[in-house]
Amino acid sequence: MSNTEQTVYIVEDDEAVRDSLSLLLQSEGLPVSAYDRASRFLEDWRPDMAGCVVLDIRMPEMDGMELQEALVERGSDLPIIFVTGHGDVPLAVEAMRQGAVDFIEKPYHEEQLLEKIRTALSENAEQRQVREEKQVILDRLAELTPREREIMDRMIAGQANKVIAIELSISQRTVEIHRSRVMHKMGTHSLAQLVRMVLSVQDEA
Amino acid sequence: METAPREQQACVLLVDDNPQNLKVLYETLRDKGYQLLIANDGEKAIQLARRHQPEVILLDIMMPGMDGFEVCRTLRGDSTTALSAIIFLSALSDTEAKVKGFNMGGADYIGKPFQAQEVIARVDTQIRVIQLEREMQARNRQLESEQASILNAIFEGIYGLDLEGVITFANPAAAVITGAPQESVVGRTLQELNFSAPESEAHVERVLCRDGSPVLRRGVTMARADGGTFQAEYRAAPRFEGGELSGSVMVFRDITEELAQERALEETRELVAVQREQLAQASRLSVMGEMAAGFAHEINQPLTAITNYVSLVSRMMEKETLDQDALRQVLEKVSAQSHRASEVIRRIRQFVQKPASGKDAIDVARLLAESREFAEVDARNNAVSVTLSIPPHLPHAMGDAVQVQQVVLNLIRNALEASRMAGAQEPVEVRAEVLEKRVCIRVLDRGCGLPDDAEERLFQPFYSNKEEGMGIGLSLCRSLVNGQGGDIGFERREGGGTAFWFTLPLADPEHSEPLE
Predict the structure, then answer these.
(1) What is the predicted pLDDT for the residue at B508?
(2) Is B230 in the same domain as B285?
């Protein structure tokens, strides 16, 4: 996974704030995409968007909180940094409860904001990496035949080849062949690693 | 002979030196309803006349001693007897004697020998004449005393003046006011009595009404008899006799106390105005407090942008090659944002600061545009917009701009809140127009409307239909609008919502056309 695919999405109705922040982040070498309305960003949103959202909490029409809600509903995993005004602390707390990664009060030191953005981006990258790894495991699991899947489940449960052979009324040799195919398809030589892989996707499988 | 009913028996004095003549006269007039008196010489006649004041005296001319003419002269010269009608009796039939008798004040003449019917008729006529005369005099006396009592009862001083300013009449009140006894002022001039100061000369001229038209002056200094002065109000009207100006009547009163009361009232009014302004000021600060979060946001936006731009500039300067054009562009943006921040601060200051000058010509269109800018924060927070509809060339109004803006802002903020509570989509509309020589400003919303009892209570202090409301806003608005000489009110709109309006007087026409 590389950070170059990540974009900082700025959603801010104030033109000056939007423009200055865009230029600042660009000067830091961050790809930026800026929106003047929450609704426009929502129209553009795709599940494979990588990066983070810097979101103004107060905006006309759809405000920051409403956009957050809509994104959560659609299953977005983009981390959100809320930008709040003075006296918006209760709103910010509510936003955090809804799953925002962080918030920052205007006017802010750019170093603080950049730090929060970097943290959000690496968190997002990590999350994406974990998700991609899971996807690989899930893809491999999908390649197993029903018989192979059955034998793998017994392997993970700690049953010896001999026990598996007896309980399934097949030869121990056949168990061994299935077992090596499972290990091959799952791309591992170690039973311990296999166990870890399967457990990591248990929720999603 | 029929005689008119008389309250009192008329008295007739018969004077003749001849007893036979007296007897004939007595017999003739007896039983005719008269009180009859008899005298056989001039001296007795005068005595009786003085005692009984007879209506008619039948007086013989030719008498020994004092003759009829002499008796007549004496009676005429005495006020107690002067009114009796004298009918001369004489055998003299020459015209000279008759003329002499009439010249001496005789009322009639009867020649001897008497004809009874003639005597009765002439006496009766004289009695009727004299009784009518007496009635008229009594009536006149009554009228005179009524007039006098009216003039005496009047609280205002009254002078009758001739063409030269000499006082010919003064009522008792004039004496009380000026401290000069009534009898001492008649015959003296207004100049010496009441307008002795050199600067008062013009008043004498005015009071005399020489141009024939009445005058009224107030706050005039008049002198008192003791040398003191008082503040007076006077009216004077010309008097005419036979179409000719004959003088004037001056009516005046002491308004020293009245003026003092007026001053006290004026001071109280000023105090109320000061307190109103203080309340307005306090209310502006309180509104500012409510709007502080919004304004903090308004200022934070440009400050945030400036911070970002400045950070950007430091990064640009760290690079090996400096892109001067890009740098200049960013700095221009910084400058624009700092202006934006100071503009917000200017608006706050303008609203909160105490107005230095009171009423002035107000450009209503501009004031409303500024008020809308001012309400933008609230508009955003309530998610309702504000529109203006103002006709071109709206004339200027007269008032205190800061206070008027406060009223406008208060009404707009109420409308925004009502709209939000009702979830209204329609914007709050601010209209201005000229109605009946006034500028009428309306703020219309499609909000939650007003409770049924709003008419009675809405403009009362400490009444509010908002949970957090203090109930100061609208009562203050009314006080402020009334202070500008305008009115304020509201209407329930058909289809929901409320329209608040207030009026302001138009400024002088010279301010009416905005300068090009």
Answers:
(1) 78
(2) no
